[in-house]
């Protein structure tokens, strides 16, 4: 995958595309609209996404697969420019007014028709064969409930400097080692940016929408719940995403940030104690 191919779409709108490119994306979403029985549902929450959204959509349109799928953008009080782009291209958009990434992902889960949910982010670029790599394993293993991968990072306009390439190499090596360790290690390093889930196993509990509890650990909590239902599989696939915001010094990443713990809320204290990784069951 050539990431820099997408740099020309950075901070662009559909109106700035060539007539050929615009027609291609319009046709892509028109064809998706004719898929009545999708096997997979790509769920993409949007909030502040206008700078990277067009590039993300172009990467989706480059997916190569024979698996029928649908694409669902969840409007989580997104910017006007973001919604205008999606409307112009004819993308399917559902509304979730309750602010928060887990509210948005839960809405996508509820409206999705596919047996497999692919959790994606609108600032990310996905490998051309992402669908096959993340979905076909479910057909080979009926006990599989989740596939997950490790994303790399890009710089502002989808560029990769030498320093960033080294950083990405080290990140993949480090995460691959972590993911090969115990349950406690694997669960902490699962990321929603590159995750596919068996929908029927997730529906009974869904995404936790208690934002003060899940802040920074929503994907880890989801993985813990799913761990009781079946097995996980790590998939080596190319995914590039924006650099995360600076973490708070001295705090664990990505798991729960203690500043969201209400000091006098006993029920929330109990929930946080239950979620401590060191106490997670094997």
The CATH topology comes to Spore Coat Polysaccharide Biosynthesis Protein SpsA, Chain A
How many strands, which pairing sense, and closed or not: the largest β-sheet? 7 strands, mixed
CATH level 1 name: Alpha Beta
Count of distinct structural domains:
1
In CATH terms, the superfamily is: Spore Coat Polysaccharide Biosynthesis Protein SpsA, Chain A
Q: In a few lines, what is going on in this structure?
A:
This protein has 282 residues and is of the alpha/beta class. Helix content is 37%, strand content 15%.
Q: What's the SSE blueprint?
A:
Elements: H1 19-32, E1 40-46, H2 53-61, E2 69-75, H3 80-89, E3 93-95, H4 101-111, E4 116-119, E5 125-126, H5 130-135, H6 137-140, E6 144-148, E7 152-154, H7 162-179, H8 183-188, E8 195-198, H9 199-202, H10 211-214, H11 218-227, E9 231-234, E10 239-242, H12 266-274
Parallel strand pairs: 1-2, 1-4, 2-3, 6-9, 7-10
Antiparallel strand pairs: 4-8, 5-10, 6-8
């Amino acid at each position: 995958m050539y990431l820099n191919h997408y740099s020309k779409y950075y901070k662009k709108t559909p109106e700035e595309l060539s007539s050929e490119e615009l027609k291609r994306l319009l046709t892509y979403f028109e064809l998706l609209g004719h898929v009545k029985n999708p096997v997979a549902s790509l769920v993409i929450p949007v909030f502040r996404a206008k700078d990277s959204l067009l590039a993300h959509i172009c990467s989706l349109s480059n997916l190569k697969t024979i698996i029928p799928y649908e694409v669902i953008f969840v409007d989580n009080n997104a910017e006007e420019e973001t919604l205008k782009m999606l409307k112009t291209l004819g993308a399917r958009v559902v509304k979730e007014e309750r602010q928060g990434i887990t509210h948005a992902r839960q809405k996508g889960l509820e409206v999705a028709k596919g047996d497999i949910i692919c959790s994606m982010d609108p600032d990310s670029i996905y490998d051309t064969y992402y669908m096959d790599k993340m979905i076909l394993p479910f057909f080979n293993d009926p006990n599989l409930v989740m596939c997950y991968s490790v994303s790399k990072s890009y710089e502002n306009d989808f560029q990769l400097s030498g320093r960033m390439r080294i950083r990405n190499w080290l990140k993949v090596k480090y995460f691959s080692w972590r993911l090969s360790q115990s349950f406690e290690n694997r669960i902490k390093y699962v990321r929603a940016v590159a995750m596919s889930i068996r929908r029927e196993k997730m529906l009974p509990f869904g995404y936790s929408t208690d934002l003060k509890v899940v802040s920074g650990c929503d994907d880890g909590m989801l993985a813990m719940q799913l761990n009781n239902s079946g097995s996980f599989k790590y998939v080596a696939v190319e995914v590039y995403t924006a650099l995360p915001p600076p973490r708070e010094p001295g705090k664990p990443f990505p798991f729960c940030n203690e500043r969201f713990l209400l000091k006098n809320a006993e029920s929330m204290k109990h929930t946080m104690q239950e979620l401590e990784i060191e106490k997670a069951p094997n």
